[in-house]
Amino acid sequence: MQTELSSAALAVEGNRFDDAASEQMECIIADLGRMYRERNEALREVERAHHDALLRLSLAADFRDDDTGVHIMRIAFLAEALALRLGEPARFARMLRKAAPMHDIGKIGVPDDVLKKPGGYTVAERAVMNQHPEMGAKILGKSRIPLFQLAAEVAMTHHERWDGGGYPKGLSGAEIPLSGRIVAVVDFFDALTMDRCYRKAFDDEVALQMLLEQRGVAFDPRVVDVFVEHLAEMVAIRDRINQQRPSFESLVDPT
């Protein structure tokens, strides 16, 4: 009888130990979960701050070409819309919207006498101008964050040409990442239809004809075809951005 009581007492003590251990483990798991959430939020804040700083540097570069600074906002939303019309996943399109405004960030390092020069460049001036994609990629850095990897890719490749005659690497066809091919088309059309310090904007019809002339030469034929197919939508997006002037908050949120 005494042995049975002792066994029962040990069982009770064992259950108490198991309950205490279980409660302690639950506390540890809850603490780890909280620490994980706090870590992720801190990383998101760092990413937001990094993105905001790079966008403002991109805006400074854009102001040197466009006194409104709204060009990079138009490129953001046009690139997103074109990516979606090409059938790309929504996640990629959203990320491209945030990366595309940084495409010309390297122009911050191009002297004004080259950047704003009307007419053609000398060989030496062209060499200076053609450095801005690589400068942009260096500014964006070698990040493990997908957004900045994509932004560096866009900066490096949006002046490559479908026929291999672009810069800085002379890539051709599908060697050029889709992100660069998309931004190349929207940047070309948008830049032609905006005033520059050295020329007035072209009409949409003229810009469209110039784009079609470069189909399969400078630009991916499929990307051009989809852009032209949805031209009314693209022009409506451009005009809406010009009227509403969306804030950086529409681009900075990394979620």
Can you walk me through this structure?
- The protein has 255 residues and is mainly α.
- Helices cover 67% and strands 0% of the residues.
- It contains twelve helices and no strands.
- The termini are far apart.
- The model has no long low-confidence stretch (mean pLDDT 83).
Quick summary:
The chain has 12 helices and no strands. By secondary structure, it is mostly helical.
List the helices and strands and how they pair.
Blueprint: H1 2-63, H2 71-85, H3 90-99, H4 112-115, H5 123-129, H6 132-140, H7 146-157, H8 178-192, H9 204-213, H10 221-229, H11 231-244, H12 249-252
Helix pairs in contact: 2-3, 2-8, 2-11, 3-7, 6-7, 7-8, 8-9
> What kind of sheet is the major sheet?
none
N-to-C SSE series? HHHHHHHHHHHH
CATH topology value: Hypothetical protein af1432
Task: Write out the CATH superfamily name.
Answer: Hypothetical protein af1432
What is the 3D form? elongated
The level 1 CATH classification is: Mainly Alpha
Beta strand %: under 5%
Cα separation of the termini: 66 Å
Helix/strand structural class: mainly alpha
- Rg, alpha carbons: 27 Å
CATH architecture classification name: Orthogonal Bundle
Based on DSSP secondary structure assignment, what is the total number of beta strands? Answer: 0
Number of helices: 12
Average pLDDT, to the nearest integer?
A: 83
Any low-confidence stretches, pLDDT <50, length ≥5?
A: none
Overall tally of domains: 1
Helix content: 55-70%
